[in-house]
Structures are given as structure tokens and as C-alpha cells.
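Study this chain:
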Amino acid sequence: MGKLEGKVALITGAASGIGRATALLFAQEGAKLVAVDIDETKGQQVIEEISGMGGKAVFVRADVSKPEDVKAMVQTAVETYGRLDVLFNNAGIMGEQGPIVDQTVKNWNRVLAINLTGVFLGMKYGIPAMLKGGGGSIINTSSAAGLVGFAGICAYCASKGGVIQLTKGVALEYAQQGIRVNAICPGTCLTPMAEGLMAAGGEEVRKYLEAQQPIGRFGHPEEVAQMALFLASDESSFCTGAPFIVDGGNVAW
């Protein structure tokens, strides 16, 4: 029996990177999936992969910064499977890069809307569904950039730091109602977001970033997915309100 057998899990940002890796792993461990992303083509591909391995999954196209979309994705989970046990608020963007004085207000608002407000909305609409089922586990994707500063991506850092504090506050609100809330703080992993950042900077930037990893290499989405599995499963029953770092030792410098 899988670690998530009988559980219903909703994952945002499920079409690529950490979200995709987690969706596949959760399905392998017995969860019924609602895979959410703004990219319908890649999202449907994930559904096909899960179906090919004998899993159950449905896709929902949603912009997590829009309340009506988030409400609809949670409703889909309940209408399709009858409950919601695991919510992985994973969707996020990097946004523009450069000094704060060169950052546009539009970029600031967009990064916070997706990375932070999206997490807020996920919990706002997901928690009532979880309470009806007797509780559950919420996992929010923060970042190593939510713990330490990185020049040139101030909006991203602010949004990810906010996710950690939001996670802690909500964890305290529902600690005695059967809902656990934790955050994952990945370091530099080989996801489309990181690959895009390195491609823009060239091979010199890639080598520089790799040299900053104490473990000697970049992470893989599947390694972060394993942490998400732990937090989604009953094995983490005494864990709530905490940021779990998966960064190869980066913030330990």
C-alpha cells in the first residue's frame, strides 16, 4: 500500500518542475490527483502520464492569483473525489531580475499575486474542504530565497519569505483541528525556472551557481518531491508550522 493510499491531493504548478515530479510521485503512492496549472498542454501531458501508470488524475486550468479560479479548483477536487486531504500550493514565478530601483510595480504585484496571494487563496478555499473531511496536510512552496537574501530578485525573496510567515500563522490557527501546514524551501534545482535563469546568464552564471552548492551539484525536482511526500503522508503527523529546507546545504554557508 502506498503512503498516500486513499488520499485526495491537489497540486498547483503541476505541469512542470517540482509540481510535475510531485504529481507523479503522489500518484505512485496511491493518491487521487487534481493537477492544476495555467499551461493546459503540459498539464494534460501529466494527466496522461499518471493515467498510463494506472493512477487517477484530473486537470484544472487555473490562475492561482484569481479567487474564482482557486475556488473552482478546490470545488473540482470535492466534486470529483468527494474530499480534499492534501493541498500543495506550489505554483510560482521568478519575475524580473535586477536592482529594486529598476523593478516595475507591475512585476512586484504579479510576483506577489502568484507566489504569495496564490498560497493565501489556496488555503482560504482549501481549508473548509479539508475540515469537512476531518483534516489534512497543506504544503506551501517557499524557497531558500525566503530564508536568506539574493540580490536582483527582491520581489521573489519578499514573496517567499511571506509564504513562510503565512504558513506559520495558519498552522497555529488550525493546529487543533487536524490540519497541518508546512513549507518547503528548495535551493537551486534543475527546474524550468532555474534553467531559464541560467540560460539568460550563460555558462558563467551556471558555473557560479553550481559552485555555491555545498553538496557540489544542483538539486532535482524529484528530491524536493520526496520531501513533499513526507509532509503529505501520515509520517509527518507531528510536523506543522515549519519550513523544511531542501537545498544541498546552501543556506548553511
